[in-house]
Write a structure and sequence with these properties.
This is Xaa-Pro aminopeptidase. Helices cover about 35% and strands about 20% of the residues. The protein is built from 7 helices and 14 strands. A hairpin with an 8-residue loop joins strand 8 and strand 9. It is globular and about 60 Å long. The termini are far apart. The mean pLDDT is about 95.
Length: about 325
């Protein structure tokens, strides 16, 4: 018997979202962002007032903030709420019996997402609720530079995520740093939070599928030091057509639109490492966070103050 194994054409069609799916993804990411602002404002206030919260307590509270949002159905995966050295465990899931009490003097990494009737979210933010070390700030800034490089990338049609992956690593490589996971995966529309066939990464299969307008993909470089800390900055981005001054080869060019709208963590940024264009990107991103999220959190003074504080221009 001859057996032919091929990828289903349904997978390829599903990867390219309809205009309705794309607008739903944008909308649910805004509500999701509002839930995260409520959460991080609440968490910072509790920790700085001396309250003891463990990683599970925090994750449960985040789920409550998400559940209060319109069209919420459930989590898209188990929340990675990790303090200090637990953040270096890439697929960490806190359990009540073994998890840590969150230490405000250490880096806190939170990778989480929600399922909404109009879309699926997946977002990672890394914060320090005290005073980070110069080394922690340098590592965080290198990760952020990689995140921005992917976000701003413009590339000819036919380009795969395999070819874009070094953009996310070049700043880390300058310091002799790296990370051992992919840079991005497709995201379903009220479906699987990990969706193929495309992605951004160094595994050979990422070179099989070109990125195409309408695809969703994550942008999530990181850096991890075993026994110390983990850093990851993750947004969901959409592949879109881009007008360029020229059109070499007549192929057309693509770029990205970020739809995750959550501040990045100002006190972990070493501004001296950044180029003027990177500073401009950060300031514009934070102004977008302020403008789009403020109306959604206006009834929570704590969240309003936190959002203002975390979007001050650098």
């Amino acid at each position: 018997t001859n057996v032919l194994e091929e990828r289903s054409f349904i997978t390829d069609r599903k990867a390219i979202k309809t205009p309705e799916e794309l607008s739903g993804m944008r909308a649910c990411h805004l509500r999701d962002g509002a839930a995260l602002i409520h959460y991080f404002a609440w968490l910072e206030q509790k920790l700085l007032s001396g309250e003891k919260l463990d990683e599970v307590d925090a994750a449960d509270r985040l789920e409550q903030f998400r559940a209060a949002q319109e069209h919420f159905v459930g989590l898209s995966f188990a929340t990675i709420s990790s303090s200090g050295s637990n953040g270096a465990i890439i697929h960490y899931k806190p359990e009540k019996e073994t998890c840590k009490v969150i230490d405000p003097t250490q880096i806190y990494l939170c990778d989480s997402g929600g399922q909404y009737f109009d879309g699926t979210t997946d977002v990672t933010r890394t914060f320090h609720f005290g005073t980070p070390t110069d080394y922690e700030k340098r590592c965080f800034t290198r990760v952020l530079q990689g995140h921005i490089a992917i976000d701003e990338a413009i590339f000819p049609k036919g380009t795969t995520g395999y070819l874009l992956d070094p953009f996310a690593r070049q700043a880390l490589w300058k310091d002799g740093l790296n990370f051992l996971h992919g840079t991005g995966h497709g995201v379903g529309s009220f479906l699987n939070v990990h969706e193929g066939p495309h992605g951004i990464g160094i595994r050979p299969h990422f070179n099989d599928t070109a990125l195409a307008a309408g695809m969703t993909v994550t942008d999530e470089p990181g850096y991890y030091e075993d026994g110390k800390f983990g850093i990851r900055i993750e947004n969901v981005i959409l592949v879109k057509d881009v007008d360029t001054p020229n059109n070499f080869g007549g192929r057309g060019y693509l770029g990205f639109e970020h739809i995750t709208i959550v501040p990045i963590g100002l006190n972990l940024i070493n501004v001296e490492l950044l180029s003027p264009s990177e500073i401009k990107w950060i300031n514009e991103y934070h102004q977008e966070c302020l403008a789009k999220l403020m109306p959604l959190i206006a009834d929570d003074p704590l969240a309003v103050d936190w959002l203002k504080k975390e979007t001050v221009p650098i």
